[in-house]
Design goal:
14 helices, globular, two-stranded antiparallel ribbon, mainly alpha, single chain
Amino acid sequence: MHHPDRTLAPREPVAPDPEPALPDDDLDHDRRRRHTRLWVVGLVAALLVTLPVAVGLGPVAIPVDTVAQVVGRHFVGVPPEATWTPAQESIVWLLRVPRVLLGAAVGAGLAIAGVALQALTRNILAEPYLLGVTSGASTLAAATILFGFGAGIGSSSLAGSAFIGALAAGAAVFLLARVGGQMTSTRLVLAGVSVGYVLHALTSFLIFASDDPDAGRSVLFWTLGSLTLATGQSAVVNWAVVLATLALLLVQARPLDALAIGDNTAQTLGISPTRLRATVMVVVALCVGALVAASGGIGFVGLIIPHVARLCVGTAHRRLLPVAALLGAIFLVWADVLARIALAPQELPLGVITALTGAPLLFLLVRRLNPTH
């Protein structure tokens, strides 16, 4: 902004500071670093406690010590004598361990995707749904379930179709938002909303056109989110995707700080807003595509968790991203536990749980916002 007293300003442009003030730069760095370290250590400990407890909870409750023994036997071969039933071992190792690990990966990935999108668009309501990626995955998944599209790629046809649909939707948003070689926040939001609505309507049409009510019910359940398709392989793959995405976004943490303030600030630091948006868009689309392919459409995680993380450690992305990832992982694991036990033995769609818990949190956050924003 220009100085209000123009008569005191020099006639020639004033050179900007070497490093304009970015989020949290006015705070003591050592204190903020210690504060963030405490949050990270505490959340890691909470996640390590959450994982075995969540594995033991469900329609069939299994003691935590039994969970630890089963997992220990499969990982390191101990204890030598089984003190559990074969059914308990199957539930723990084949069903719940992959499910809980996948849930943690999906929660972490959606949270960091939400952080990145809110910086790109400077929109506090931005989340992965904004990309239209979730809708793209849902559309091709619906086509696979209802009409056998993609059946030729074997048992992975559903996940493969969802991933292709997610990437195609992300590419469409990218192309629509990039006009004249430039990509602005407003065009990015409008392109994402437009693509999302079109694909959502197409999914609804596919369900309506199908004459198989059971398949339609399956599509509806999948589009609302579920971890029932979790396998050990999908959990490992999605954790690899999330960790790679987190590393790439941490490399761009400082540019994201600048972009969150405004394009002018980014350009002052020698950052191309268009190039940064394109790079981060591709990274986020790949990540969300993989997550949606494994878990379906899960809302509110990418919207709520970034705001909660900012209340914990501030707005600087080098602190915000890891804390958001840990909070997202813990949140979604417990949301899945609630989905399993709320109406046991019937299971609720995961998206219903995240919406019911996320909406009150959103209301509280709205009340805390500065009215000038």
